[in-house]
Amino acid sequence: MTPAAFQSSASISCAHCTHDFPVQLTHVVLPDTDDWTSLQTDDFNRVVCPHCRHDGVIMAPFLLLHADRQYGTCFITDCSQLSHDQQSQLVHHLRDRLYAGLEQLGLDPVELNQVGVTERYEMVILLVQRTADPSYN
Ligand SMILES: [Zn+2]
């Protein structure tokens, strides 16, 4: 189950019918979880409009904790257009969500040695797909 600290509520407008509806977005992904699997299949933060059934993936910022639990990757849309301070604020915010969520889950805390930032969604997908492949080292 995804802890509350990993999620936020938002209201979005359907790209197809412009109907507004509430969604729950996930901002932290742990290794070996349903969220991790949904990233592999491109279903992470996928939402369906209750009005017209149009579906799409919401490109909300999130932090991916790597399988070694020492490194993280933050996906932030258009992060190259943010200032260094804005980027680092967002990374800190996501990292705090990670720490709070681990506590809620009763899991061991992690110390992130390094957090990378990318705005390339396909790189994140590649990362989770490679980690799932036992032949990848
Ligand atoms: Zn719709």
> How are the strands of the biggest sheet laid out side by side?
3-6-7-8
Order of helices and strands: EEEHEEEEHEH
Q: Which percent range describes the beta-strand content?
A: 25-35%
For the secondary structure, the number of strands is 8
Features:
single chain; 137 residues; alpha/beta; four-stranded mixed β-sheet; two-stranded antiparallel sheet; 26% strand; globular; binds zinc ion
Can you walk me through this structure?
This protein is an alpha/beta fold and 137 residues long. It has one domain. It contains 3 helices and 8 strands, in the order βββαββββαβα. Strands 3-6-7-8 form a 4-stranded mixed sheet. A two-stranded antiparallel ribbon has the order 1-2. Strands 4-5 form a two-stranded antiparallel sheet. Strand 7, helix 2 and strand 8 form a beta-alpha-beta unit. It starts with 6 loop residues before the first strand and ends in a 5-residue tail after the last helix. The model has no long low-confidence stretch (mean pLDDT 92). The site of zinc ion has 8 residues, from loops.
Tell me briefly what this model is.
This protein has 3 helices and 8 strands. By secondary structure, it is an alpha/beta fold. The strands form 3 sheets. A 4-stranded mixed β-sheet has the order 3-6-7-8. A two-stranded antiparallel ribbon has the order 1-2. The chain has a two-stranded antiparallel sheet with strand order 4-5.
